[in-house]
Amino acid sequence: MPKVIAVLGVGPGLGLSIARRFGREGFTTALVSRTDARHAAYRESLPGITAHTYTADVTDEAQLKAVLDRIAAEAGEIDTVYFGPADATAGPGITPLTEAGAGTLRAPFESLVLPAVRLVEAVLPRMLERGSGSLLFAGGLSGKYPMPMLGSLAPASAALRMYVLTLNAALRETGVYAGTLTIGGLIERGDIHRVFTEQDHGFAVGTLDPDALAEKAWSLYVARDEAEAEFNAMAAV
């Protein structure tokens, strides 16, 4: 039976590149996004790759559990999950840390960190039972370096990064792997890249090739000897 990768938060940039890279290795791909508006186009862009598409908001606990159950039932037992949901409209919601209170900081934890933990809670027991599996995450560079322009998003990014790094260490002797792509820059073809470049923000941000990131994700999966891969297109960092 082919292995299955669940790509949670798929978009036209990195998520689709992850699906394509793992699909080239014979994986069945299960693509999950909030709406089905682009699902037909996603499937068409993966010729020769078995691709299932699902609609779910993976930041919602009930929807996340339901879609993981559907994937296991329809595509097969999940070998690998990639967690990379991103909101292209989140930029205007960023608050400088000098103005952010507890309530402001709580929101990114609830939309980013807690869903990641719920995902692990749902899939890890079966992975440990069989002694194999992989958990891949995408995180922001503000989780590693101080980036004041990302203000209220940075603490949640740091928490997610440390969660994955610690999980990697805790799983070292189990046969299960956890790793993170720490990303600083606009991912080409992605929705955030499109939204950002439609406006003049007064500063430039470097771009990253999603296929190169996906290639590194595959290398992490195969080698399993690094917990983190950093991609930095931010000139000031």
TrEMBL record:
Gene3D superfamilies noted in UniProt: NAD(P)-binding Rossmann-like Domain
Superkingdom of this protein's organism: Bacteria
Pfam families for this protein: adh_short
InterPro entries from the UniProt entry: NAD(P)-bd_dom_sf, SDR_fam
SUPFAM superfamilies xrefs: NAD(P)-binding Rossmann-fold domains
Protein name: Short-chain dehydrogenase
Annotated source species: Amycolatopsis vastitatis
